[in-house]
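quick one: zinc ion bound model?
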Amino acid sequence: MSDCIFCKILNKEVPNYTVYEDDFALAFLDIFPHAKGHTVVIPKKHTEKFVDLNEDEMKKLIVAVKKVMDKIQIVLNPDGFNVGWNERPAGGQVVPHLHIHIFPRYNGDGGGSVHSIIKNAGVISVEEVAAKFRA
Ligand code: 5GP
Ligand code: ZN
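yep, here:
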């Protein structure tokens, strides 16, 4: 997509610090890092949502994520990771080109877990939600 910043990175119109690349995916350092080595992994095909990929593409993207984690582990030796993506504006997605965030974590870095993203389960009970899945 011509006005997509990540497509511009793929097309080398915008520079990036590449961490990993294969035929399907590119991983580069986030320009506004939330952790040392904060990296985003993107499919080379412009796709907005994870579910827009077919299952073979999903596998390729997740394998690329694993390889990036391995590389970060060797280079920066973090104590842990948070890995995930913001999907659609309600999920915090700003760049509309699917990207998996990899946040290397370090003991004592002051960050939280993925649970700290949202704490608003609404007034509905877990039992009522479960009933909706059974309906
Ligand atoms: P989102 O909120 O869409 O999940 O995250 C988009 C991410 O892309 C942000 O963490 C932001 O810092 C990063 N980002 C935005 N523009 C650029 C850019 O031009 N280069 C790089 N390397 N990262 C970018
Ligand atoms: Zn794009």
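Residues 5, 14, 16, 28-32, 40, 86, 92-95 surround guanosine-5'-monophosphate (ligand 1) (CB under 6 Å).
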